[in-house]
Structures are given as structure tokens and as C-alpha cells.
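#struct-help
A.M.: can someone run this one for me? Single chain, 388 residues.
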Amino acid sequence: MISGYLTRILIEALAHEPAAVLLGPRQVGKTTLAVEVGKQLGAIYLDLESDVDKVKLQSPESYLSDHLGRLVIIDEIHRAPGLFPVLRGLIDRQRRAGRDAGMYLLLGSASLDLLHQSGETLAGRVAFLELSPLQILETTAIPSDVLWLRGGLPKSLLAASDARSLQWRKDFIRSYLEYDIPQFGRRIAAETLRRFWTMLAHYQGGLLNVAQFARNLGVDTKTAATYLDLLCDLLLVRRLPPWHANIGKRLIRSPKVYIRDSGLVHALLGIAEKETLLSHPVVGQSWEGFVIENLLANAPQGVDGWFYRSNRGAEIDLLLSRPGGELWAIEIKRSLSPKLERGFHSACADLKPARKFVVYPGNETYRMAEDIEAISLATLAGKLREPV
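D.P.: on it. C-alpha cells below:
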């Protein structure tokens, strides 16, 4: 299931920049997307988990110099951070020869380390793109509740049964804890990090309280903060920041914390099927996180996501700030007959957003008030894809 939309975005980035970095968690489909783009552009593909390809790059400048003029895809680039200075030199050489775009596509599973290494070394030469799990506009043949239950990691979503999907996600979590995280140089006991990850699943969509996490784990606050930073760096957890404009109100300043893939939330909590999910205490916050991730995945560049909450109870689940300063206020309800609370109206009176939406599980779009629309997730995601 390769998104034509994402393929076009990646090809466009390579048409304008010497290099592109494609970020995303493991098993999200980075390699599949890159190989598809590589076929269209006549690329060479190298995987740094392959011993054969690692041998080719023992003398990277020599090997890559032999392939100037072609797009080179390098998978698992975080395994060879020493390549970045070499790539910078080769990019500059090709620029002097008149070629200014489409030289290298780099794939990685960790965020901040890779962003720092590549951004510092390849400044002015690279575009960054993030590949999220499959989302609602890419899976129109699959019921949205199946996507919500299983999450958007392709092998989980396309499993033969809910039971097989759950087992794949449990294996995925175990692989991350025992194999992937240690390779990034973090020496953390797998069981401790599993407990922390599971704690986040129970706390889905809650305000960040690192001190509480630390007490529950029996570690110090700095250690708990390190665990959270790690899961955010690996693109598995999102800190949704609070809106902080100076509007004369006392605002909540702690971010909200979400596990980004709903299927991983459910796997960590042992939720195997939709009926169990619908009766579980996490159901509302799981749906909220699912909606937020889908909308942010479809938001064009330059659109940022926040939440808004004041000490007096004014609240907006998701606030999108668009280029030019326009705000969209989005309330998220799991009910087929959603009702708005006073806090949403109060928040909108504070911020005066240009558009107001209530995302609910139904398919119809209708007005709940003169300036408030009830809308399906897929329809609002489609609106976000429209040019800003």
C-alpha cells in the first residue's frame, strides 16, 4: 500500500534539493516507499544492515564518486554517521558541475540524533520528510475502526486476523526493546522501558507529569525524562505542545503525551478486539490520539498542532495554526451524536479561530451551530490536504 500522495511529495523534494532525509519508526514503510521512488528515478539502493552493502562503503568517497549522476538511496543511515561529511563534499562537487538536486535519499529510524547530524553537516543541502504510519486517506478500502484498532503499521493493519495483528505488534514492541533501542547506544533495562511505555499507554492524552512517572517507576525525574525523550526521538511518542499566546489568561503549560500509533497503545494494554476497546477506560483518549495523528499526518508544511487549555476549563483538543496566523479549532468526540461543552465555546471566545470543527465517527457533515461543523475524520483530513 504505497501512497501516491507521499510518493509525489518525496519526488518533489528530490527535484528541488540535493538530498532528502526520510524519517519514521521501523516497519512504517520507509524502505518500500524509497524503493518505489528509486525505481522511477533509476536509483542505486544501499542498506547499511547488509554486510554486502557495508563492504561497498568501506571507502565511501571512492564508491559514491563512481555513481555521481544517479540518485543513491542509503537505508539505516544512522548506522554510519561518518558518511555525512563525505556526502557534503560530494554534493558540493556535483553542484560545481551544475547538478543541484536529486543526489541522495537517506532513511533513518531515529529523529533528533539524525536531524542533528544531517542538519549540521548538510545545512542548506537537505529536505526532511517524516513518514507516519498508514492513515485514513491511504486505507479507504479498510474500515476506519480496523485502522484505529490495529494502528497504521502495514504488517499489523494487513494481518489475517485481529489476533495475528496483536501478536505482530507485541513482537514489534519486544524487538524495539531488545534490539533497536540498544543499537542507539542507550543502556536501559528492557523491562523498565516496557513498564514506562505501558504507563504512557494508560496515560494516553494526559498532561505530562514527569515527576509522577518517576515515582511510579522508582527512578529519578531526570531518568524518567530521558526515557520519554528516547521514545519521542524514535518517533513512537508525541508531546503535543500547549498554545502559549499572550491573551491575558492563565494557561496550562505542560504538553500532552500520546503514543503515536493507536495499535501500539492497544497492544501495550492487551486490547485484542474492537468490543474490548469500546468498553476500556482508554477508549476516548485512544480515539483522540488516533484523530490527532491522522490530521497532523495530512497537514501541509507550515501547519503546526497544539492544544489549548486554561485554568478556568476552556479547552480545545487540537488547535491548528496555519501560515498567516489562521487558527482551526478541532474538538474530538467518539459519540455519533456529539455534544459540545462550555469549555470549547469559552476557548473559541478566547482565540477566535477562523474555522471550528467537531470530528466524530459518523460520515455526514452537518452544522452544529452557525460556525461549527460536525465532520468525519476522513473529510477533515482531505480538507487539510487542500493547498494553504
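A.M.: thanks! The chain has 17 helices and 14 strands.
D.P.: also worth noting: The mean pLDDT is 90.
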